[in-house]
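TEACHING EXERCISE
Course module: macromolecular assemblies
Task: Read the component lines below, then compare them to the predicted structure of the full complex.
Student: A.B.
Group: 4
Components provided:
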Amino acid sequence: VSRVLVTGAGGFIGRQALEPLARRGLEVHAVARREHRADLLAPSGCEDVVEAVRPSHLLHLAWYAEPGAYWHSPENLRWVDASLRLLHAFARAGGRRAVVAGSCAEYDWSNPPFAEGRTPLEPATLYGAAKHGLNVVARAYVAGADLELAWGRSFLTYGPGEDPRRLVASVARALVSGQPAPCTHGRQVRDFLYVKDLADAFAALTAGEVTGAVNVASGRPVAVRELVGLMGELAGRPELIEIGALPERPGDPAELTADVGRLREELGWRPARTLEQALGETLDWWRRRA
Amino acid sequence: VSRVLVTGAGGFIGRQALEPLARRGLEVHAVARREHRADLLAPSGCEDVVEAVRPSHLLHLAWYAEPGAYWHSPENLRWVDASLRLLHAFARAGGRRAVVAGSCAEYDWSNPPFAEGRTPLEPATLYGAAKHGLNVVARAYVAGADLELAWGRSFLTYGPGEDPRRLVASVARALVSGQPAPCTHGRQVRDFLYVKDLADAFAALTAGEVTGAVNVASGRPVAVRELVGLMGELAGRPELIEIGALPERPGDPAELTADVGRLREELGWRPARTLEQALGETLDWWRRRA
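Instructor-supplied answer key:
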């Protein structure tokens, strides 16, 4: 039996990954700080949960993700360590295939769209450097440990359960409650992937055989002003979107977009929903919460 | 006062670095597993020693270095973690300048001589990947922590106190006791730097202002057969050197050589001894121990 241990299973992406993993025939064991009382940052947290589950597969999504703070927090250093301990415990316990969540923040942002194996890996943030540094060590580690490693580099995401301080969630909350939604100039171009689709892609990567880095993205870039404009239309309140009301954030890159060739051709994965469908689902979810 | 904390101070390189650091006017605090009872791998080992010393400078030489095993041992993962904790503790305690020992193993070995900023960083070993991964994270960390970081990439070294399982030490021991010294074909080209000179270069780097990666090497490549041949001549027993008596080691790269432009021009450092002088000193040291 294939038995997958999922870290960050209580998180924004992880909670959406459990069903797609089960659907692909894996026995799912979810680890989350609260639900299953495993703290991967504790001295033997990684070792204990791996010993208890003895998984054949690992989907490692857990990381420090406090909006704003995660880009430069020293918490990133602790997650490099926890992730290495987790991989090592997983290998020693007979694990076969690990999938780790990387990030578009690993790439040189001046050079979009980002392609695995071609775009230089020159992170602009501690978060990106921690993920990339972990990847450097993990790749070498698995080469000597008879372990498969796939490294899913996620881009931007949104959907049910998103932290309300983040872009799509904040705009959705404003729209469904009839409040103005102030935005920046909105010319930033981004690859947004609905969190249920993102989680499904990670599940496909876990159940599949592709190794190495794979961008996990929609492959359909959109300007932020178009995205929020579409949300305003879908909510029937386009006048609430206030483009240019917020100052540009310092260091905000002009474009974060993905080459999704590996994802489409090698993994054979595409998102199930259009941007419009996914934003509609997202607005519905926030409406039920309003 | 400038106060430097030296990790690995009981090790092969570290024990040679204390005097050159003091000579450059730094107040030296040495950390070693036995002498000063600090275990950097213990839960609060890094934090405790940094709190006790409150150094302005850090020279981090400590790492797992068991001959043969260190290339692929999972101990490398523990040292990534300990090094990150050490840097973070150092920054929080008001540290100003950190120097960390990197390695020629960080480079793509197919592409000598290796130059900082030009040769791709594609480690062939877990040791090299751990050092490089640490560098990726550490560079991003110090950028946000108001800390200077210099990264000294050492190449091959030898001299007093070398582990007798390593090349120069094993040949020296054989020569001074009149035993045959079996070698491989010896066509491997290497940059060897005498450990006292290597340690002096790290001391110069610590007391200096250069930041980023700096190769710490002699800049004078030599084929292993020439090196051991010279040792045979210096010992007056050239007939004991048995070139070709040992099989080539799998994965042994043809050439590990350094571009030392940064070391010479920016740091203004050169080795104090010729290869012949340094090998002579080394043979003398082993003779006194024979």
